[in-house]
Amino acid sequence: MVDVESDGPIPHKYSMVCFGAVVLETSLTKKFYGQIKPVSGKWIPEALAVSGFTRQQHEQFEEPEAVMKSFAEWLRANVKGRPIFISDNLAFDWQWINYYFHYFVGENPFGFSGRRIGDLYCGMKMDTGLNREWKERFRKTHHDHHPVNDALGNAEALLEMKKMGLKIPS
């Protein structure tokens, strides 16, 4: 389960600020948090403000290559086989992780696909209009834009869907 905060809408022109990941297992104790120094001189103040950091703080974060290599190592140590990228907003979160992995590491351990929690839930309920219902019903951890907390809440929701019959490979 992955969540990303950024200072703009697209990679390269703007920068990822921080991201969090949680391995989907019952204990939800395997967590990763990365804070990444900007790769661009551009940023949108309102977008950066969502993360709770100032530009000055953002500029003091770690180099992207070191963070992404550390994340790749963490994935290898904590996930058997190829990890599956799952997030609340797959189209947004995946583009950042994919770009940063390819640019700074040379490959994306997640491959070229992922899963969006809302789509899984809508499919289970056979109703594409239920996109927000799962968030309100199943998240326990408050969604506060700290990416580890947000990933944790999403993982909690997915585990509730598993109890409802969603098959999730171990």
From TrEMBL:
Domain 3'-5' exoribonuclease Rv2179c-like residue range list: 1-158
Any matching Pfam family: Rv2179c-like
Superkingdom of origin organism: Bacteria
Signal peptide: none
Classification via SUPFAM superfamilies: Ribonuclease H-like
InterPro entries documented for this protein: RNaseH-like_sf, RNaseH_sf, Rv2179c-like
Protein name, as recorded: 3'-5' exoribonuclease
UniProt source species: Chryseolinea lacunae
